[in-house]
Design a protein that fits this description.
This protein has 476 residues and is α/β, with parallel strands linked by helices. The protein contains 16 helices and 20 strands. An 8-stranded mixed beta sheet has the order 4-3-5-1-6-19-2-20, sandwiched between helices. Helix 2 crosses helix 12, helix 9 packs parallel to helix 12 and helix 10 runs antiparallel to helix 12.
Length: 476
């Protein structure tokens, strides 16, 4: 195999697009490019094969990339891919002589040097490879991790470096006009939520730039904006499922948010179909799907809170030895310490604060010098509420934390996902369910690389055969 091998694989990783909604929108005729893609592909529904508590994208994408189940790869949280001890698809393709271009894939670990480029997901603390990509990556990481925090402003220098990089790395005129239109629309209506798709567009421009330059044997492109819309706005999309109803003003602004996300993905699909030639296999995987989240409707719904300033968090809560803090997704964040003793002390201290008798941080996980935690309060908090500490110390809740905007949870994960495989023959079939652990060996077979022994599942048969290992039960 080499970077100029006869068959290349492009994997579109559109996080958590949902089979039911995809069928619904295609049926309405609003996703013409997805429809063409589906009609020219082998179509499968993937089964995550995990219990509900392990249905998390940072788990399932590691499974897709490694061919290992959650129990086998042992990666349970964002930004801990370094725990993976086995090579992933890009390591194996690079070792076989093929160029790779991994653009935004979630929870990646990789060996360096690698024959290609790696842009980690925006929740990662790792650097991009090669380092020239950091001009893009570090900007996007800050925007995604702190998108809900008004106290984390963007500097002009950061913005200037980001724009200069993009202008020389494929920024499309259509993307520029979309950015300008977004700015104008925000002055008239409540459409700030659409900004997430602008990052998708910019990242897609970057992907196309390097894809055309390198012609990699294996490439991935990951986006998350529509998954975010589903989590936040499902009650606006299908309000009949929910007890807590959106206001008329909110409904007017957000009822089309999920459909908008799918249409934005459809635009990328259209360009992807044109980008890949007859020598490329185009694949779509979503890892998971979603469904309405109804568990807390009777108690006011699930709300999320985060610290205003992670840099000041340690002093606010009396912690010592904290070297840095990094946000993850939703309410969670990491605290890194100088020593395990410091981390253990922080662990003990963070168990103490209470809000009206409830633990402020209900779930704190320590591993070595790291703590992963988040605010454990998920209901509405009164403006005058105070956090209480042993010994009588008190601080105002909203002096330390803030309510994440649009955090009233509406969508939750479902084990069913999408897998489409479009080969040069453009043959269409819809035959069976497949497990996520079968995706990696299938990609390796398409690339002409033998699957390593730790991948226990065989490749998915693409000739219409149905074999017992792939006939998995429906997800709960």
């Amino acid at each position: 195999m080499s970077g100029d091998c006869a068959k290349k694989v492009i994997l579109l990783e559109f996080n958590e697009l949902t089979p039911r909604l995809m069928d619904q929108f295609i049926g309405k005729g609003v996703l013409p490019n997805f429809q063409r893609f589906r009609d020219e592909s082998r179509v499968f529904v993937t089964d995550a094969g995990e219990a509900q508590e392990n249905l998390e994208p940072w788990i399932q994408w590691v499974t897709i990339h490694s061919g290992l189940s959650c129990a086998e790869h042992g990666v349970f949280h964002l930004n801990e891919a370094q725990k993976l001890t086995k090579p992933c698809l890009w390591d194996l393709a690079s070792a076989a002589g093929g160029k790779v271009w991994i653009c935004g894939s979630m929870n990646v670990r990789f060996d360096t040097p690698i024959n290609g480029r790696i842009l980690p997901d925006p929740w990662s603390s790792a650097d991009a490879y090669p380092r020239e990509l950091n001009s893009f990556f570090q900007f996007v990481r800050k925007q995604v991790q702190e998108h809900s925090n008004d106290r984390a402003p963007l500097s002009l220098g950061e913005a200037a470096r980001f724009v200069a990089f993009l202008l020389s790395h494929g920024l499309a005129f259509s993307t520029i006009t979309s950015i300008i239109q977004q700015i104008l629309d925000e002055r008239r209506t409540n459409v700030r939520w659409k900004r997430a798709t602008l990052l998708d567009r910019m990242q897609w421009d970057l992907f196309k730039h390097y894809f055309r330059k390198d012609r990699p044997a294996f490439s991935t492109f990951f986006v998350n904006s529509t998954a975010h819309f589903q989590h936040c706005y499902w009650r606006n999309f299908e309000p009949e499922h929910f007890s807590i109803q959106p206001s008329p003003e909110e409904q007017q602004s957000l009822q089309d948010a999920i459909a908008f996300g799918y249409r934005e993905m459809d635009r990328i699909v259209g360009e992807a179909l044109e980008l890949c030639g007859d020598d490329s296999v185009l694949m779509l995987a979503t890892g998971l799907g979603q469904q309405p989240y109804l568990k807390m409707e009777e108690t006011g719904g699930k709300l999320l809170y985060r610290p205003h300033d992670l840099n000041a968090f340690a002093s606010t809560f009396g912690l010592t030895g904290v070297t840095r803090a990094t946000p993850v997704m939703a309410e969670q964040f990491y605290l890194y310490h100088q020593s395990e003793a410091d981390a253990e002390r922080s662990y003990d201290l963070l168990k103490q604060p209470r809000l009206n008798g409830e633990p402020l941080f209900g779930h704190v996980v320590r591993e070595g010098c790291e703590l992963l935690l988040g605010c454990g309060i998920f209901h509405d908090v009164q403006q005058d509420a105070v956090i209480e500490f042993p010994g009588g110390k008190q601080i105002r809740f909203y002096d330390a934390l803030y309510l994440i905007k649009d955090s009233l949870k509406s969508g939750m994960h479902h084990g069913d996902g999408i897998l489409w495989i479009r080969s040069a023959d453009r043959k269409h079939s819809e035959t069976q369910r497949v497990g996520l652990t079968s995706v990696a060996p299938t990609i390796l077979e398409l690339l002409g690389i033998a699957a390593p022994g730790f991948m226990r599942m065989p490749a998915i048969p693409l000739d219409g055969r149905t074999e017992e290992p792939f006939a998995q039960p429906a997800a709960v």
